[in-house]
Amino acid sequence: MGQMWGIHTDKAEYDFVGDGYIAVGWSQLGDLRAIGDDKEAMKAAVAAAYPDAKPGAIPVWAGVLLRFAFEMQPGDVVVHPHKADATISIGTVEGDYWWQADAPDNRHRRAVSWQRTGIPRATLSKSARYELGAAVTLFKVKRHAGELRALLEGVPSPGEVGPALAIGAEEAATTAEDEPSAERIETYTRDFIVETLLKDVDGIRFEHFVSDLLRAMGYRTTVTQASGDGGFDIVAHRDPLGLEPPIIKVQCKRTVASMGAPDVQKLTGTLAPGGQELGLFVTLGGYSKDAVHLGRTRQDLRLVTGSELVDLVFAHYEDLPSEWKRLLPMRRVYVVDREPEAR
Fold it and tell me: How many separate domains does the chain show?
């Protein structure tokens, strides 16, 4: 049984899952096979290619590149957390390292066959989510490989699998994987918000949460009856009487499952033509490709993912009613924002 790796990318233009590969940056180094599987040679090459890099970053970057080009093997499992929609995808490395010289960036690549995609992060145990938030681009998954292999085989996550095991700091790169950082703390907070709304709030309360969030944003809202709502749960508007267009009809889904086009069409079917009414679909998860296409082609429709909902909570938290602040207790803090590597 091969290794299990986690890999991040912060470049939205690269679709690892859709394109069938994984990649890392540091393209100024050229083909890594010309440097070879030698730690000191890789560190020297990185230092020469990036003279402005902080000394502590050099061994971290070199370690990532050595792992990607030489330690990773065909048959190894790859886990790719996708921050934009709070999902993960799991696949298998299909080939050796190659250098894509004509690519604009991320020229160090490996082919991957993705077997499971779009798995909501909320279905993982808390400690597994924390491990996948490692601070480096490429890292070994050590503590929750069994849980993730089970997901690859289609077995649901067992939930919390017990306390995380401490790992000794073998080198700078390993230390960086477990080091607290601003990004990891933000990821933990995002998971906390989604998990709390999913597990501690029922469907009707979730509608009221979305309604109160819209009120914090400056809208006037009314939650419809719990049954027979005709395809929408909330009516929102800007004017005091709700007479001036546009009127916004809001559908709320308290789920991390992917919403399809038929789900969204139930909302669009309630909208009056001519732009007098707009549709807003809010979910804790994401949307299928067909649903996303529908959202892009209709000017009267806006789809809000779970990640975007959390963004709105961050932006308007101070104006939420105290009920929701008690449910989601948060405060502003200063944290270490050291960037151990450039991705």
Answer: 2
State the residue range of the domain holding 84: 4-179
Q: What DSSP string describes 285-319?
A: S-B-HHHHHHHHH-TTEEEE-HHHHHHHHHHHGGG
Condensed to tens digits (0 to 9), the pLDDT of residues 123-151 reads 888 888 888 887 678 999 988 999 998 88
Cα distance between residue 224 and residue 201, in whole Å = 18
Asked if residue 87 and residue 212 are part of one domain, the reply reads no
For 21, 136, 137, the CA distances from 104, given in Å and listed in that order, are 15, 22, 19
Task: Provide the pLDDT for residue 181.
Answer: 64
- Give per-residue pLDDT as tens, 269-316: 999 888 889 999 999 998 988 999 999 999 999 999 999 999 999 999
Cβ partners under 8 Å of residue 149, min gap 6: 4, 77
Q: Radius of gyration of the chain from Cα atoms? A: 23
Beta-carbon contacts of 262 under 8 Å, excluding residues fewer than 6 positions away, are none
Task: Please tell me the predicted confidence (pLDDT) of residue 91.
Answer: 94
Residue stretches of the chain with pLDDT short of 50? 159-177, 340-343
Determine if the peptide bond prior to 104 is cis (ω within 30°).
Answer: no
Q: At what angle do helices 289-297 and 261-268 cross, to 10 degrees?
A: 30
**What end-to-end distance do the CA atoms of the chain give, in Å?**
28
Instruction: Give yes or no: residues 138 and 221 share one domain.
Output: no
